[in-house]
Predict the structure.
Amino acid sequence: MPQFRKVTDAFQVSPQITPDEAREAAAAGVVLIINNRPDGEVPGQPTNAEIGAAARAAGADYAYLPVVGRPTPEQAKAQAAAVAGAGGPVLAFCRSGTRSITAWALGEAAAGRDRAELARLAAAAGYDLAPLLGV
């Protein structure tokens, strides 16, 4: 699972995954997979239904929280709530992983987590969120 980027012990982010990768994530202990990518964004991408079915068949919960552009405060709050309520490791994905980690970081920041720490965690996973987080 080389494309799965660990952000914290409870949260990983990834570019687009396949149904097989959803099964791999569940087998590796991920308890919730969050899809932040709208269906039909590009031709040929796996559908929400396909990935969700694979995740659930492998024993993971699945949430479809599509984001177009920058996540809204409501989307960030929904992402944070899903991660907090998962009870174990979470994998979130979109086309590149950027919307997923952005929604997570904005939700964490809104809950009072240190923005500089969030920027460091994102940078360690390969995403520069410092300008977005104002640090």
Q: What stands out?
A: The domain at 5-126 is CATH 3.90.190.10 (Protein-Tyrosine Phosphatase; Chain A).
